[in-house]
Structures are given as structure tokens and as C-alpha cells.
Q: What sequence folds into this?
């Protein structure tokens, strides 16, 4: 249906796409992903005939793109650009009717059928309610829907969308993506959409193509493409890849860009955590290059998950289990030679107070979150434990963790 074969293009001396090859088959809904400036819009411009290739070929519905006349191309491909401005005061209805231009000429005036096609497109996109308003006075999201209506009115085989959701709020993003899926599934329109949101791509598209360095870097189903290594390379940041059980799709959760200052002096640091208080601490310390351990964490907790993700050695217990002698011994082993021990903001009760045993004997500095003092669920046991520690070892109580300042 749409085939790129060693496509190359640039602007003057600047080469943007070197060698792009992939195909979009009839009925597919493909997302084109890539970071800013990789040439996604440039590729769309080549398909719509605005920019000639400098090498390779594009075939549209089996025809060589170079040989297509504008009218013929427009009957096969509709383009929804990133932004579209008009110089004149056209109404919404005027703009949507423009979708019929490839079919109308001086011999064939706009017919009742043309008007019905435009009417249906306006209903589908819910733009019929503001049909008489001036296009230039609409919000970005409303304009986006109008341009989509124009594309539908064109009755193309293929729709190319350049970031169709960039101007939309969350509600309208999902609505527009649902609408595009509907066009794909019910109206059998093949779709190639440039998307920045990989989670939307995962949720709605059957395939994802990733562009990088002027070439196709990856091409496959969302499940094949969305893995941690591929995504961290693409976005150059730390992120989690998770299955969203509600929609049964893989999604990413961005964490942070990889610009953490690496420490000149890597330390051994043990973090006492267990539920979710340790997440940021574990992540920041690991990013800085420190050797981190953790304990005693609940197996189902966020802290355990981040340990798993960051490969942090830890002592674990199952949910609703209390810290036993075995776990306590392992925890002591991990913290005994540490250069610092950090106690995260976690609730202390009968189940985990043993976590604090042996702290007075640690070699390094001891940091404990201040909130611990306000949540003694152990009838004073916790306070007595802290008093014992303080007889032997200084405790730095902290409110806000900041590895850069302390370590
Ligand atoms: N008309 C132009 N003249 C010269 N260079 C251009 C022109 N249009 C785009 N470029 C350059 O070509 C490269 C690719 O641009 P393009 O808009 O295709 O990227 P993109 O992947 O769509 O980016 P984004 O995700 O930011 O929209 C960029 O480096 C851009 O600066």
C-alpha cells in the first residue's frame, strides 16, 4: 500500500533521511516514532509530494510516487499536517469541503454526494456543531479535528497524520486516536501516524517503526518494540516498561534523563526501606554511580520493583510477613561495612522494627528520615531503639534526601 525503499532526502546540503525502507500494508495502523528532528515530518512531506526524494523510491498503492499527478495522489493519500493555517476567512464547512477538491473540477461541480460525504466526516469528528465558525478562530484541538474531517472527506486509501494529538488535551487525545482507529477498522483506511507518545502508539497501533540517524532503527509490534533497552536508547532516559492490565498494552513510565552527575568517589550505601519511601533514594544513588544495597523490602512493593529494575542487591520478605532473624542477619551483613546507611521515610511497626537493629554498629554515617519520629506504631519501642543508637552513634535526621549535598 505504502512502500519506502532506500528513501533518501534532505534540505540542500543537509541530509535528513539516508536510507529508509519499510512498508505499510493495506489495513495497517502504523506509528512512526523518533526523537525531535529525526525526519518524520520530512518523510510525510515526501509522500505528499511536497519534497522530492534525492534517492530511493516511494510507492503509493503500487504506483511510483515520482510519477503521480497531484490530483491522483490526493485521491489516494490524505495528509493531516502538524499545523495548518489559512490566509482567508474560511468557515469550518469550507475547509472540510476542500477535501473533495481532488474529485471536483470545472466540469464536475460539487454534488449532493460530495456534500453528504463532507457532512458525514463532520459528524464523525464532531465538527458539525461549529460548521459556520471561522477556521482561524478555532482552538488548536478544534482545528485538528477539522483537518481530520477534511482528510476523511478526501476518501483516501491512506491517511498520513503528523502528530495528530499534539494540540489536544488528554480527553481529546484518546477521542481522536479512537476515531482514527475507527477509520482504520471500519472504513478500512490504512494509517501512518507520526506520534511522540509511545504509550498512545502502543495502545492504538498495530505496528511501530522507529527512525533514528536517518534510518529505520526498529520495526515491529508494540510488544516487540517496547522494551527497556530499546526505549532507553530512543529517549536517552531512564524509564520503566510495564504492562497496563486495564488495556492489556505495554506502556512506559519515564523516570529521568540520564544527566545525573557521576560521583568521583563511589561509596557503598545501604538503604533501609521497604514500601515506597526508598524509590527516589535508590534511583538517585545508583545513577550517581554508588554501590547500593537495600533491605528489608516487601516483595510486592515499589521499593522492591525499583531494586529489581536497577539490579540492586537486597533482602526481601513476602507481603504481610514480619522481618525474621534470617532477614535481619542478612540486612546487618549488607550494612555493616557500608560508608553510609540511609533510613527512608517508611512506617515502622512490629513487622519491620528489626530493620533498625545493629545500626549503632555501622561504620559509616547514619541518616534517618525525620518522619520516623512521628509514626511510632510500636508503643515507644521505636523511640527506645533510636535512643539506644544515639548513645553510641550520631544520627543525622533529614527531611529531604539530597545525595549531592551529603555524599
Ligand atoms: N525547510 C527546511 N529547511 C532546512 N532544514 C529543515 C527544513 N525542515 C526541516 N529541516 C530540518 O530537517 C530535520 C528533520 O526535520 P523534521 O521536521 O522532519 O523532523 P521531525 O522528526 O518531524 O521532528 P519533530 O519531532 O521535532 O517534529 C531537522 O534537523 C530540521 O531542522
A:
Amino acid at each position: 500500500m505504502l512502500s519506502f525503499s532506500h528513501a533518501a532526502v534532505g534540505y540542500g546540503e543537509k541530509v535528513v533521511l539516508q536510507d529508509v525502507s519499510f512498508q505499510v500494508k493495506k489495513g495497517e495502523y502504523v506509528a512512526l516514532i523518533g526523537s525531535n528532528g529525526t525526519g518524520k515530518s520530512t518523510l510525510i512531506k515526501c509522500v505528499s509530494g511536497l519534497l522530492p526524494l534525492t534517492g530511493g523510491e516511494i510507492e503509493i498503492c503500487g504506483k511510483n510516487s515520482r510519477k503521480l499527478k497531484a490530483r491522483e495522489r490526493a485521491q489516494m493519500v490524505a495528509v493531516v499536517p502538524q499545523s495548518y493555517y489559512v490566509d482567508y476567512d474560511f468557515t469550518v464547512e469550507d475547509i472540510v469541503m476542500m477535501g473533495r477538491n481532488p474529485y471536483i473540477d470545472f466540469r464536475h461541480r460539487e454534488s449532493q454526494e460530495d456534500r453528504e460525504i463532507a457532512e458525514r466526516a463532520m459528524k464523525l469528528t464532531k465538527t458539525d456543531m461549529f460548521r459556520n465558525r471561522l477556521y482561524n478562530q478555532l482552538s488548536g484541538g478544534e482545528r485538528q479535528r477539522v483537518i481530520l474531517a477534511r482528510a476523511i472527506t478526501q476518501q483516501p486509501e491512506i491517511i498520513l497524520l503528523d502528530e495528530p494529538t499534539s494540540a489536544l488535551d488528554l480527553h481529546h487525545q484518546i477521542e481522536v486516536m479512537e476515531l482514527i482507529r475507527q477509520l482504520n477498522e471500519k472504513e478500512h483506511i490504512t494509517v501512518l501516524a507520526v506520534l511522540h507518545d509511545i504509550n498512545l502508539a502502543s495502545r492504538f497501533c498495530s505496528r511501530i517503526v522507529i527512525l533514528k540517524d536517518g534510518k529505520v532503527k526498529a520495526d515491529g509490534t508494540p510488544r516487540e518494540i517496547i522494551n527497556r533497552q530499546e526505549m532507553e536508547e530512543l529517549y536517552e532516559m531512564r524509564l520503566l516498561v510495564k504492562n497496563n492490565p486495564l488495556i492489556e498494552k505495554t506502556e512506559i513510565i519515564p523516570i529521568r534523563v540520564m544527566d545525573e552527575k557521576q560521583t568521583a568517589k563511589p561509596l557503598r550505601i545501604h538503604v533501609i526501606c521497604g514500601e515506597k519511601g526508598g524509590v527516589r533514594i535508590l534511583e538517585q544513588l545508583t545513577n550517581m554511580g554508588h554501590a547500593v544495597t537495600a533491605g528489608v523490602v516487601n516483595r510486592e512493593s515499589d521499593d522492591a520493583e525499583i531494586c529489581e529494575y536497577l539490579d540492586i542487591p537486597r533482602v526481601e520478605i513476602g507481603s504481610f510477613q514480619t522481618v525474621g532473624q534470617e532477614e535481619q542477619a542478612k540486612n546487618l551483613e549488607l550494612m555493616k561495612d557500608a560508608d553510609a546507611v540511609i533510613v527512608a521515610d517508611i512506617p515502622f511497626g512490629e513487622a519491620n522494627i528489626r530493620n533498625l537493629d545493629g545500626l549503632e554498629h555501622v561504620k559509616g554515617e547514619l541518616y534517618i528520615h525525620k518522619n520516623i519520629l512521628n509514626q511510632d506504631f510500636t508503643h515507644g519501642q521505636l523511640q527506645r531503639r533510636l535512643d539506644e543508637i544515639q548513645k553510641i552513634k550520631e544520627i543525622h535526621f533529614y527531611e529531604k534526601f539530597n545525595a549531592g549535598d551529603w555524599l
User: Anything to note?
Assistant: Residues 232-259 form one domain. The pocket of adenosine-5'-triphosphate is lined by residues 11, 14, 16, 34, 36-42 (CB under 6 Å). The CA atoms of residues 84 and 106 lie 26 Å apart. The chain has a mean pLDDT of 90.
